[in-house]
Design brief:
256 residues; alpha+beta; NADH Oxidase; 7-stranded antiparallel sheet; two-stranded antiparallel ribbon; 28% helix
């Protein structure tokens, strides 16, 4: 049984005593240092600088009202690639850093309980102009992608790992968010698992709305084989594990 299975099971126990939050005994209250806001990236990995906000072309004309009205889950994608500035916009929309609060906290484009932001963002790239297909991690502090390597038979691997949902293999990119629970546990202890689930929803909704701004669509996925997706990303399922996925691809007007 993975740490996630044990800890989420503990959170959802009906015993009310278990659900009490003992803030006097959290690592923060005990004076322990806060975990880093971003997982360290090995220096030998290739990095790709993403286009900054001022360089994005034709993004931002869609109003919030229009994006909300059009937002829906989309499972059919064209073969058109995403542009690099479009991917940069989607990454920024879901985990972009707006400002740093000292050295141990940041404000992002999505809300998070206590500004803990416990997620890491990975993208399985299949069709993005200017990027080799493969697995990348978004380095939000520097707005870069780290190339983690090629993924043979990527479309089949991600479809199998999501219990036969073949449309993930047809997407231009697949966003995969992992969680490093220690960041949230530092402030909230056992109650971290409630707010982690809430935070995942914030990220997913931002992606839905941002996709509407670039002629793309998404469908958030919570049905997946934990061990298989974690293995694709190369995370340990203990200190870091997958919590949410979302394929993204270009759509036509009839997609739904």
């Amino acid at each position: 049984m993975s740490r996630m299975d044990k800890d989420l099971g503990r959170w959802f126990l009906t015993d009310r005593v278990r659900l009490e939050m003992d803030f006097d005994r959290t690592p923060q209250q005990l004076g322990l240092p806060s975990p880093p806001v971003e997982k360290a990236c090995p220096p030998e990995l290739p990095r790709i600088a993403l286009p900054p906000r001022e360089a994005w072309q034709g993004i931002g004309a869609t109003t919030v009202e229009e994006a909300l009205a059009r937002r829906c889950s989309r499972r059919e994608y064209t073969r058109d690639p995403l542009q690099l500035d479009e991917l940069a916009f989607l990454l920024w929309s879901t985990q972009g850093v707006l400002s740093k609060l000292g050295t141990m906290a940041v404000l992002r484009t999505v809300p998070s309980a206590g500004a803990r932001h416990a997620f890491e963002s990975y993208v399985l790239v299949q069709r993005v102009e200017g990027l080799e297909p493969g697995l990348y991690r978004y380095l939000s502090l520097s707005h870069e992608l780290a190339f983690l390597g090629e993924l043979p038979n990527a479309a089949q691997a991600i479809s199998d790992a999501t219990l036969g949902q073949d449309f993930l293999g047809e997407a231009a990119v697949v966003f995969v968010w992992t969680v490093r629970p220690a960041r949230m546990e530092w402030r909230y202890g056992d109650a971290a698992y409630k707010v982690l689930a809430l935070d995942a929803g914030h990220v997913g909704q931002n992606l839905y709305l941002a996709c509407e701004c670039v002629g793309a669509g998404t469908c958030a996925i919570a049905a997946y084989n934990q061990a298989e997706v974690d293995a694709i990303l190369g995370v340990d399922s203990e200190e870091e594990f997958t919590i949410y996925l979302a394929p993204v691809g270009k759509v036509d007007d009839s997609s739904s």
